[in-house]
Structure formats: C-alpha cells, structure tokens
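cron nightly-structures :: item 1 of 1
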Amino acid sequence: KISFNASDEVVVLSEKTRTVLINDYKVPHDKVHLIRNGLSRKLANTSISKLRATTDEQRILFVGRLDEQKGLKMVLKAFHIVADKQPSAKLYIIGNGDFNSFLPLCEEFRNRIIFTGKLSCHALNKIYDTATLGLLPSYHEQCSYTVIEMMKYGIPLITSDRMENLMDNSECVVSIPYVDKINTEKVSMQLSEKILAILTDKDKRQELSDIESLNSKIKNFRAQLHGVV
C-alpha cells in the first residue's frame, strides 16, 4: 500500500485488479491505468493444425515459472491420471523456478514429463506449433501473456476461473476456491477430467483450435486494448 501511494502512476493488467487497488488499497482512481497485455500483429496461420496432425504424441504444455501459485502441483497430479489412460500423452513444462519442489511428483511417469527450463522465443514457438493442449490453472492471474500467446497459436486451453477476463468456456475452466481452502486432490481430478475430455475428442480439439475463429477473437481482444498492442 505504501508503494502504491508513493508512486506517481500505477499500471494494472485487468479491470479486477484496478478495482481492488481503488477499493481496498485506496489508490486514487485517476492514478490507476489499465493496460492489458497485447500481442504482435503477426497472427498464426491455418497450417498449424496440419502440423499437429503429423505428431504422434499428445503434447500437453505448461508454460510459466515453476511455482505452486501457477497450479503446477495440480497439473502434475492431474497428469498422473491422464498418463495412465492416454499412453501417447506427454507433459512439457517450460520455464524456470524451483525444480526440486516438483521433481518428486514425477517419479511414476518421469519418462513422459519433460522439464525444458526457459526457452528462447524461437524454440518455444516450435513447441507451440505441435502442442495438443495448454494448461495454466493459476491461483492468481491478471492478464496472462502465456494464455494469450497460446490462443494466438490455436492451442486448446484449460485454465482456472481466475482468468475470467480471458476464458469464458466452462468446458475449459476449472474452479479454484479461495487459496487457503484449495483441495488440490479435488481440483486435480477436475482438471484431469477436462484434459481427458479434450484429448479423446478430436472434433472438440479441432473446434477449440479453429485458427480463423481465434484470429477473429484476438482482433476483438486488440480492440479492447485502446490502441496498445
């Protein structure tokens, strides 16, 4: 609160955060500016879905720092259920952080969980090109660049309901209760059910990967950025 009030201007990434700062932290409303994360003007093309069709394995992506607040423990627990039922599924975890906190959760399927560390944009884009599904069930999130980036590549997504400003498809959203009341087993089960529903339904994946439709959504999203791209 001291930092906010000592600052000349405060930039937030979502309307929800702006409301919290004004109402709870008592930051003057004319000092708080909403600038959502934006994308480059270059959009993904329709050949991506054809490239994914040539990949034998089902690649599930988690992109972000290795932090419990990003829901990574729940992702790993959910993958154990998914991996047992989908032999072709592999989980790619892309980002830096406390690897030692999460490696013990990988023992049973260590050969199907790949920690890449932080990747260059070029290397990450190559993985996006062949991804089957993206996951980011964060406990807290304002305007996730990772989610917007995956949308750009037409990757079907499952997120938490903390990203209501980006995702409104109930089929692709898991509900996260207040942080101190999270039942990770229950949420992980819910997450695994949604993952399996998408991995086992080719038509659903195609619907969620419709590049033309997503490009249209991205253009509409840009219109909300008030000229900030």
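cron nightly-structures :: done
The chain has a mean pLDDT of 83.
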